[in-house]
Amino acid sequence: xxxxxxxxxxxEVFVGGRWTPSExxxxxxxxxxxxxxxxxxxxxxxxADVDRAVTAAAETFEAGTWRDRPVAERATVLRGAADHLxxxxxxxxxxxxxxxxxPRSFAERAHVPNPIRMLRxxxxxxxxxPSEEIRxxxxxxxxxxxxxxxxxxxxxxxxxxxxxxxxxxGPALAAGCSVVVKPPPETPLTGYLLADAFAxxxxxxxxxxVVPGGRETGRALVGHPRVDKVAFTGSTAAGxxxxxxxxxxxxxxxxxxxxxxxxxxxxxxxxxxxxRGVLPMALTVNGQLCIAQSRVLVxxxxxxxFVEALRAEMGGYTVGDPFDPATRIGPLVSxxxxxxxxxxxxxxxxxxxxxxxxxxxxxxxxYFVPPTLLLGAHNGMGAVREEIFGPxxxxxxxxxxxxxxxxxxxxxxxxxxxxWTSDEDRxxxxxxxxxxxMISVNGAxxxxxxxxxxxxxxxxxxxxxxxxxxxxxxxxxxxxxPVR
Length: 484
Known about the structure:
Number of strands: 23
CATH superfamily of the largest domain: Aldehyde Dehydrogenase, Chain A, domain 1
Organism: Pseudonocardia nematodicida
Keywords: Oxidoreductase
CATH topology of the largest domain: Aldehyde Dehydrogenase, Chain A, domain 1
Mean pLDDT: 97
Strand order of the largest sheet: 15-16-17-14-13-19-20
CATH class of the largest domain: Alpha Beta
Helix content: 25-40%
Low-confidence stretches: none
Shape: globular
Family: Belongs to the aldehyde dehydrogenase family.
Protein name: Aldehyde dehydrogenase
Pfam families: Aldedh (PF00171)
């Protein structure tokens, strides 16, 4: 296969393990959300392209082309894909930054290296995780075999244009599945890097398809009768529709959905420490993260102190060109996202919240919303209950720890959260009471390889870690007869 040399020009889709002309897909211009300049073009996939990609994936799975490869060979391909991505260096970082608009410093620190690490993690894990075991009850024996779930349809969002696909493709390929990925139309260029990486690593033709597109393309993938499992990251509303569609044929699902995470600040916490720790957790990727700590719960008796600390720390968040090393807040991804976020802020003001906002850059035409605090907020406000997906933080006062826990749990979501205190044991006790899939004490980062996912309407299943691999394998019991 001819190697792609221009990462910003993608006139074809990746179907059947090859770059091929689309059957009716649009050639879309990719726009830098900071400057509104065109940074490249990418072919979006059509419904017909999805069908071709799924058919190729199903045929390779049924033939055992990849499924039956020795584990060591699968691991070698995953490591080769990681090596390819790593070899792109600054080109991958710059491409992702130009498409998404997140600060380049974050793309360089996390958005690109984390997927590389994840591919190597699953290469190692599949080599050390048993695929079968003998069980007996003293009289009879059975062989329990872990088999790949089949053809996986992976639908991924624009806010993690490389990491989110890898969270699905990595463990799915490690398990022996075939995969069709649908990246979003906002960041198709970064999504296509995954096709390059696995083609360069020697993945057999047909095992992986990459077909960016919008809702129609996604519906075609979810509803395809030869897709055995759908792995989706996105909104809760879309997740509900996907779950209903998959129920028609009892297809497996992993859903990583929305969040409205609470940072619970206890009365013994230091305001400056909280502000320094919470703001990055709320504003990373310009607030466009499902795990953003967008509700900050503070003791009413010390509300003024914490508000002042947050306001002062927020003043150091420069809004501007994501390629400028000084920038900490870049643009939102699109005009639609800008309108959505501004609408929530206006609505909160109408409901009585006080708006404290940073400065918008005056020399850039892009989709900028400065970091914003909503003061005087409460859990009855839409901006406090609903996922905004922008750099907007609601400060909610409470009276007593019992009320703090109740407010944190009074949400349809249960994805992430944090507890802030000078007493780690006290923080752990409160963290245990908050119904979320992931939580930290004093902003401690999660150990690599721990499960990622949520409770309630934040999703079903887990990604990352051994749990992520297990979700792409099905146990099968084979009765062998009497114990010998």
